[in-house]
């Protein structure tokens, strides 16, 4: 069955144009599913039944995986089997009639404006590395971009004169996002005083490089932002996505419209962006309860 999975991955890359991260998530879940089938002695795709899929989802639940992860696995299986059905490898799709588990929607955690400022002020800007880290944090919070978009950002996609950055998100969809004066100031300083000293004269198409002049990895940036969070004595779990959540929530709190925030985040569906209206609503409720005389 793995050769059929290879065909499916090729279809996702060539015809659907999905991002490398999305394709990796599909592959991981489906490989896990095929391994489960192999342990049950099911070797032909046509022999898969609804009960086999349900049994797989049950094993995920027993392993303590979240409802969100289980639903993601079911979506991967359903899409894979639908592809095989359309290509004539499978007479029916046994996953179509399986109901998705209910997912409890958890509100994303955000940083307050004061906490964001504490985090941004942590890098030692007397050093090239500190200037780079400050510029990365500033542009991440200024644009709400994903960490993969940040670490893969080409130099020529940043227009400091006009004050915007060109990003390619999921499905390679292009969007233009304003940078803001503060982030522009730090990126300019990084380009002027730090980037060449870090790269040691090596050419790189990417804006942010490590000490070897190579592209900064996502893992390295994750490590850096956690370090900055500890230095700022922030009790929340500091991740790149936390700044993305904070970016969206802070814009909405200050009156930005949902559609504009959706475009800047690169969400295909506005319902994904609407979670942030709940965040701001909950925050306003807490403020009301705390300060209103009859709260």
Short description:
The protein has helices spanning 2-16, 20-39, 50-62, 67-86, 113-120, 128-143, 147-151, 181-199, 218-231, 240-253, 258-265, 270-273, 275-291; strands at residues 158-159, 164-168, 174-178.
Describe this structure in words.
This protein has 2 domains: 2-86, DNA polymerase, domain 1, CATH 1.10.150; 113-290, hpI Integrase, Chain A (Orthogonal Bundle), CATH 1.10.443.10. The protein has helices spanning 2-16, 20-39, 50-62, 67-86, 113-120, 128-143, 147-151, 181-199, 218-231, 240-253, 258-265, 270-273, 275-291, and strands at 158-159, 164-168, 174-178. It has 13 helices and 3 strands; from the N terminus they run αααααααβββαααααα. The protein is mostly helical and 295 residues long. It is globular.
At CATH level 3, the topology of the largest domain is: hpI Integrase, Chain A
Overall average residue pLDDT: 88
The ordered H/E elements are: HHHHHHHEEEHHHHHH
Q: Please list the strands of the largest sheet in the order they lie side by side.
A: 1-2-3
- Radius of gyration (CA) equals 23 Å
Tally the helices: what do you get? Answer: 13
**Please, what is the CATH homologous superfamily of the largest domain?**
Intergrase catalytic core
Shape: globular
Query: In angstroms, what separates the terminal alpha carbons?
Result: 60 Å
Kindly state the number of beta strands.
Answer: 3
Low-confidence stretches: none
Q: Structural class of the secondary elements?
A: mainly alpha
Largest sheet: 3 strands, antiparallel
Q: How many structural domains in the coordinates? A: 2
Strand fraction equals under 5%
Q: What's the CATH class label of the largest domain?
A: Mainly Alpha
Named CATH architecture of the largest domain = Orthogonal Bundle
* Helix fraction by DSSP (H/I, runs of at least 4): 55-70%
